[in-house]
Amino acid sequence: MNKREIRRNMASARDRIPDRERQSRSQSIERHLTALEAYEKAEVLLTYASFRSEADTLGLIRTALETGKRVVVPVCVPNKKRILPCEIQSPDDLMPGYFGIPEPPKQFRRQIRVEEIDLAVIPGLAFDRKFNRLGYGAGYYDRFLPKMRRDAAKIGIGFSFQLVDQLPADPFDVPMDGIITDSDWIGRK
Predict the structure, then answer these.
(1) Which class for 144: exposed (0-12), middle (13-18), buried (19 or more C-beta within 10 A)?
(2) Fold of 3-187
(3) CA angle 114-3-50, nearest 5°?
(4) Residue 10: helix, strand or coil by DSSP?
(5) Per-domain residue ranges for the chain?
(6) DSSP class of 188
């Protein structure tokens, strides 16, 4: 299968997960993630704010804020196809933005330097055991992730069926340092 077919199939499979099951699986992902040493050590956590049928990150955002971590969410800048990392104080700071993706409204954006991020939690439609990630196809994360510090961990999260043996990968695709699903964790860091 090519990337487009994989994206379509994975999005469709994800959309079919019942809400209660999605919440349960998302809580399992959060437990695996918060048990990582990289999470424990992180002072600044970048995580996507979930939408549609993605693994829910609102619980993770709340947990991180309650334990004193600084939480940063990506804000998409469509005309430049780039991500602005913006700090939030609460999940309530988020409103639907570009493509309906939750983000802080312009008047509340507090952009931070990419170098401040210690751990990035990255969405994807599929991941493989070689740490490749298949996103939505616009390349936002492929342009953003190389700007992070080399020692900052990049962790992809998704549901167990989104972890496959092999994905088609291009030279510009940025590999993850680890991948967490509701039932599995594979990592290099």
Answers:
(1) buried
(2) Rossmann fold (3.40.50)
(3) 45
(4) helix
(5) 3-187
(6) -
CB atoms within 10 A of CB 178: 21
- Contact yes or no for 88/71 (Cβ under 8 A): yes
Decide if 139 contacts 145 (C-beta within 8 A). Answer: no
pTM: 0.95
Find out whether 179 and 131 touch, Cβ atoms under 8 Å: yes
3-state secondary structure of 55: coil
pLDDT digits (tens, 9 = 90+) for 111-162: 999 999 999 999 999 999 999 999 998 999 999 999 999 999 999 999 999 9
- DSSP state at residue 101: -
Tokens 């990289």 belong to 38
Tokens encoding 107: 């008047």
